[in-house]
Design a protein that fits this description.
Layout lengths: L1 H25 L4 H6 L5 H34 L4 H26 L6 H20 L1
């Protein structure tokens, strides 16, 4: 049961990070998106677009790592080495998501809510996988 919950939280964390990728790398120029990230105006959004584009791909790559890890973890049922590699990828991806949320929090208390949004699902998944 713990492994199922861990998998659900890991998958939700990956989906959230894909959504963040879409906002940062695809939809950044839309006012409803850059306002969500606290950007003041369109000029500032245009100036930060390359940074947001790059940052979005970091989120996508973390999500892809978690998904590949989950696939290896469950597809490698007959191979302990494949399962171990899958678990390592999942834990690395989730741990990196949590670390990124902590870094975001160090930039100021106004980022507490986004850090919690970004870091809660992967933290729960990470802890559950440790006990699975």
């Amino acid at each position: 049961m713990v492994a199922i919950l861990a998998t659900v939280f890991a998958a939700l964390a990956a989906l959230l990070h894909v959504y963040i990728f879409v906002m940062e790398s695809v939809q950044w120029s839309q006012p409803r998106i850059w306002r969500r990230f606290g950007v003041a105006d369109q000029a500032a959004a245009d100036a930060t677009k390359p940074m947001a584009y790059n940052q979005g791909f970091y989120n996508l790559f973390l999500a892809v790592g978690v998904v590949i890890g989950l696939v290896l973890l469950y597809a490698g049922a007959d191979s302990g080495a494949v399962r171990a590699a899958g678990l390592a990828l999942v834990l690395f991806g989730l741990g990196s998501m949590v670390a990124a949320a902590l870094v975001l929090l160090t930039t100021g208390t106004k980022y507490l809510r986004p850090a919690l949004i970004q870091g809660t699902l992967p933290l729960i998944g990470f802890v559950l996988f440790l006990f699975a």
